[in-house]
Amino acid sequence: MSRTTESSPPTAASTIAPSPRERRAAERRRRILDLAVELAETEGWPAVTTRRLAAAIDYTQPVIYQHFASRDALVAAVVADGFADLGARVIEAAGSGEERLLAACRAYVEFGAERPRLYEAMFTAEVPVAFDAPDTPAPVRGAFDVLRDIVESERPDADATVTAELLWACCHGLVSLRASGRIAAERVADHLGRLVAAPAEAPPRSGPHSGV
Sorted alphabetically, which Pfam families does this protein's record hold (predicted)? Predict the structure, then answer.
């Protein structure tokens, strides 16, 4: 996945405080998204329908469609939020300690264990979100960039993108195996330690590539 470009400085128009109506709309949108994730975590994604959401928050379905053109659009927004949350957790966990890479990988795996249905939407379900494409949402790219930046800092002689891809894939495997009961939760920490030790032998820097 290619690195995100730096955003432009905020303009005067972008710093204007939202109106009360805009704040209410933003709060309503947030409530819809939060409820969608809550329903998914307790009952699975098939339970997340616009009809069910509208009934749960005492709105009509047209109100849902004011914020999301379709159920797919709603799930895509949930996925973008999920990646933003994952990136923030990795940044917070990594901090500035000596084992930043291990902390980052641990945060990834813990996120998948704590939010299994959200993780499912982000990584295994069919969702209308482009990956490794020009229109990939910024939060999706950003989550990968966070891990790559940590690799770049901790493993300066390695190809940061390739190493980050390998770490991401291995962490995803641990999340999936743990969720399916194929691997005991208590063994994950040991595997993560071994995983983080492995990048010392990661491939050297090479030519440009797009990433995952």
Answer: TetR_C_33, TetR_N
